[in-house]
Amino acid sequence: MSAEWAVLAATVLGAYLLGSLSGSLLLGRLRGVDIRTQGSGNAGGTNAFRTQGWRFALATVLVDVGKGVCAVLLMRAAGGYEAWLFAAALAAAVGHVWPVFHGFRGGKGAATVVGGLAVLWPAAILPLILVWLLVLLSTGYVGLATVLAGVALTVLVLITGMGTLWLVFSLLVAALLAYTHRSNLQRLREGTEHRFERARVFARLFPRRNGANDA
Questions:
Q1: Which of 59, 115, 134, 151 is deepest in the core (most CB within 10 A)?
Q2: Gap between the Cα atoms of 85 and 71, Å rounded
Q3: pLDDT of residue 213 exceeding 50
Q4: pTM of this prediction exceeds 0.85
Q5: pLDDT in tens, 187-197
Q6: How far apart are CA 164 and CA 155, in angstroms?
Q7: What is the pLDDT of residue 214?
Q8: 79: exposed, middle or buried (Cβ count in 10 Å: 0-12, 13-18, 19+)
Q9: What is the three-class DSSP state of 20?
Q10: Is residue 47 within 8 Å of residue 39, measured between CB atoms?
Q11: How many other C-beta atoms lie within 10 A of the C-beta of residue 6?
Q12: In sequence order, what DSSP letters do the residues of 126-150 get, joined into one string?
């Protein structure tokens, strides 16, 4: 039993190290750039899009999602049961946020969480993306959309009765995303958060009438 636990624990460590391979920073080296010195200073997909364009951002997201997928698959191959699979998914996300290979300055973890969920509970991806899109298209705030999608995972777990382990996992995911987006939430309270205006489709489709028009 101790040998089995040692293998599973080593796999969790491997998931963290895998998560520490930051997509934007590794790809950025090919361009000779470190996006942590540009834009918001974050090493995630949103800042990659704003500073390097959609192709670079897409490649970044694919790498970061892939880390979550591989981490859970590695744990499954090692014989890990449900709790260990959750541990691997979280370890990969933690590695993405605090990457040992990049001075513990990484992204915000959302894409890697999605990768883990794609293996753990594929059916959850679509409703979470719908929540994310609804908030983004309504408000234009990427950070808010991500945090609320994390909260939606817990709601989805409760609605579907997935059990205690899933509830704990979903709460940890929601807490991680809220923590990594704490600066976004602070700027929202202060009214200084960057708004992705082009994403505000609903605002253009259903413009508010001002007082003069209502009169």
A1: 115
A2: 8
A3: no
A4: yes
A5: 999 999 888 77
A6: 13
A7: 39
A8: exposed
A9: coil
A10: yes
A11: 10
A12: HHHHHHHHHHHHHH--HHHHHHHHH
Each residue's pLDDT tens digit, 48-73: 888 888 898 899 999 999 999 999 99
H and E: helices and strands count for the chain = 12, 0
Q: What's the pLDDT band for 199 if we cut at 50, 70, 90?
A: low
Token pair belonging to 176: 């991680």
Q: How far apart are CA 152 and CA 101, in angstroms?
A: 32
CB half-sphere exposure, 215, CA atoms < 13 A: 3
Q: Parse the chain into domains and list their residue ranges.
A: 1-120, 122-215
Q: Amino acid letter at 123?
A: A
Phi, psi at residue 22, to the nearest 5°? -75, 125
Q: Residue 78 contacts by C-beta under 8 Å, 6 or more apart in sequence?
A: 7, 8, 11, 84
Contact 64, 107 (CB under 8 A): yes
